[in-house]
Each structure stands twice: as structure tokens, then as C-alpha cells.
Amino acid sequence: MISVKTAADIEQMKKACRISAMALKLAGEAVKPGVSTAAIDKIVYDFIVKQGAKPNFKGYGGFPGSACISVNDTVIHGIPSKSIVLREGDIVSIDTGAFIDGFNGDNAATFACGQISAEAQRLLDVTRESLYRGINAAVLGNRIGDVSAAIQSYVEDNGFSIVREYVGHGVGANLHEDPEVPNYGKPGRGPRLVSGMTLAIEPMVNEKSYAVKQMSDGWTVKTRDGGLSAHFEHSVAITPNGPLILTTV
Prior knowledge:
- By secondary structure, the protein is an alpha+beta fold.
- The protein has a single domain, classed as Creatine Amidinohydrolase (Alpha-Beta Complex).
- It has four helices and 15 strands.
- The chain has helices at residues 7-29, 37-50, 118-136, 144-157; strands at 54-55, 67-71, 74-76, 91-100, 103-112, 161-162, 168-170, 177-181, 198-201, 204-206, 212-214, 221-223, 229-231, 234-239, 242-245.
- The strands form four sheets. The protein has a five-stranded antiparallel sheet. Strands 1, 2, 4 and 5 form a four-stranded antiparallel sheet that branches.
- The longest helix is centred in the first third of the chain and has 23 residues, at 7-29.
């Protein structure tokens, strides 16, 4: 069942989203050669807790970190580790979330570690822009498929591929709610967008094939062909005045 929020709910949800967005900003600023993903995870944890909120990923389904930190060919759900030390030229996808006052915030971005290749930068640029293409399609009267198609067409027109196995989702009192928000699909399909829906829109874009594989730890998802992957995400409210990005600093 899709949860439709009141205007008061959305105002309250903004707090969790702002905390999540600031945690992501701080994490991105920490992306430098020689820094471990565990150190970045601690920055996220310490900040969110200091705000009186909870890192909503920590313990979710048994996940051990406060953030998912995914490097290079890791698509999503990278487990923070002292043994994963960032190097010049890496791209680092960080997904953070916070829970406070009954609501969740959820957002992600991919950061350059030092100087990265031109193709890696293009992957980041296209993935980020595809997120905003999807958000711009999230207007009253459209359907989920219109959001999905806007993302897919932009990504594929630029020669990259969209991950199929993992999708965006509703977000609110629960971290993952209905409806699913695929990053691929046909316009005019799926649930109709109504005022008060809150969605986590999150394209995951691969440099080469969209095929992925889950590793033996049960969490880490990598590209099957070893190509790079990027991930950007915002929590967005559907309003009469257009889509409202909640995860802003």
C-alpha cells in the first residue's frame, strides 16, 4: 500500500532528510586518498547521532555500517571497512540515511577521489543528471513509469546502462515503502503520482553492462564485468507545485 503524507508529515520528514543530506555532504568531503571507508562511516555515524537521530541503515536487515560505501565496480551496499583504503582515481558511492521524529531520510551520491579519468567523470555527470531527469518527471498526474523512462532514456542515450535488479522506492515512516521506483520502464505505466507521495529516486548506472552480482557477504553488489558504477539519490515529495527535493543541505 502506498503511504500518502499530509503537508504536516512532509514538514516533519524534512528534518530527517536534512540530517541525511548533511551526513552525505560530510562523508563526501572526507573522500580522499588514504582514507578508509570505515573512517568515513564513523563520520556519518557520529554526525547523525549528534543530531539526536539514528543512522537508519545500521542494523537494517543486519547491515553492519551506518552508510553504504561502494568503490569503483561496487554498485551498492558496500560494507565500510578499515581494509578498504581509498586511492587516487577511485569513485566512491555513499548512501546515507537518518531516522528522527518518526520519519526517514535517504540519499546518495558518488564522489571523485582526487583526479579521476574523463570517462569516470562522464559516468558521474550522466548519473547525476539522470536523477534530475527522473525528478523532473515526478509531477502530479504522471506515473512511476514516466520517472523510470526519463532516467533510462537519458542514461542509454549517453552509452551507459541502468541496473535492473535494484530500484528506488517509497520512503517515509519506513525506510522502504511502496511503490517501487525502477530506473527503467515505459511511460504511462505504474501507479499514478499523487500529492503527498514521497519517493527515493535513485539511478544506479553502470559503465558497461547492467549485469550485477552479489558477493558472498550477502550485501556487496558489484558489476559483473568489472566496469565502474555510479549512484545518486534524493528523497522527493510529490506536491501540487511540482517535485520537492527533501534531502537538501
